[in-house]
Amino acid sequence: MLMASKLCAAGPHFKEGGVRAWAAKLLMSRVGATTPSADRITLLRDADGDGVAETKTTFAQGAAHGLKSPFGMTLVGETLYVANADGVVSFPYQPGQTSVTGAGTRVFDLPGGPPASGLNDATRRLEGVEGIAFSRFSTADVVRHPIVGRIVEAYEGPNA
């Protein structure tokens, strides 16, 4: 199993010294998300099939591998696609591989900066394209710290 480790970068809507920046910093610190983004993909291997990963290794990390706040991955044939905050990169992959070598190949860029969201733009452009599906989660799907559920509710509420 591959796991993306990242933190979202604060955008210009979090102006230093503003109320939103203060609230964001408070919430991020409460959930332990105030450190710089790891920009890492970690490989977890369950060698004996008991549901517990016996090994944990860094599969890819940082700008050298083309990672910038990675948030999603999919394997298609022998190609691993990684969705970053600013675009999608791909890596050749072979079964049993434990790390990538070299930088990923840039597949396409996502628009960035406020108020655009690369994820929202990709969703808008790709919704309805045959072979592509999106999963949407609600607070019922959140299995983390209770404050994360409240953050999701705040973004889905009437003031969203």
Short note summarizing the structure:
The chain has 160 residues and is α+β, with helices and mostly antiparallel strands.
Descriptive report:
The protein is of the alpha+beta class and 160 residues long. 20% of the residues lie in helices and 24% in strands. The protein is built from three helices and seven strands, in the order βαββββββαα. The protein has helices at residues 19-30, 118-126, 146-156, and strands spanning 2-5, 40-45, 55-61, 72-76, 79-83, 87-92, 105-109. The strands form two sheets. Strands 4-5-6-7 form a four-stranded antiparallel sheet, with no helix packed on it. The model is unreliable at 9-14 (pLDDT under 50).
Spell out the key features of this protein:
160 residues, alpha+beta, 3-stranded antiparallel sheet, 3 helices, 7 strands
What is this structure's SSE topology?
Layout: E1 2-5, H1 19-30, E2 40-45, E3 55-61, E4 72-76, E5 79-83, E6 87-92, E7 105-109, H2 118-126, H3 146-156
Antiparallel strand pairs: 1-2, 2-3, 4-5, 5-6, 6-7
| Major pleated sheet | 4 strands, antiparallel
Distance, first to last CA: 33 Å
- Write down the overall geometry: globular
Order of helices and strands: EHEEEEEEHH
Q: Count the strands?
A: 7
Q: How many structural units, i.e. domains?
A: 1
The count of helical stretches stands at: 3
Oligomeric grouping of the chains = single chain
Portion of residues within helices = 10-25%
Helical/strand content category: alpha+beta
- Low-pLDDT residue spans: 9-14
Taking strands numbered 1, 2, ... along the chain, how are they ordered across the largest sheet? 4-5-6-7
Please report which band the strand proportion falls in: under 5%, 5-15%, 15-25%, 25-35%, 35-45% or over 45%.
Answer: 15-25%
Instruction: Estimate the mean pLDDT confidence.
Output: 77
- What integer value in Å does the Rg equal? 17 Å
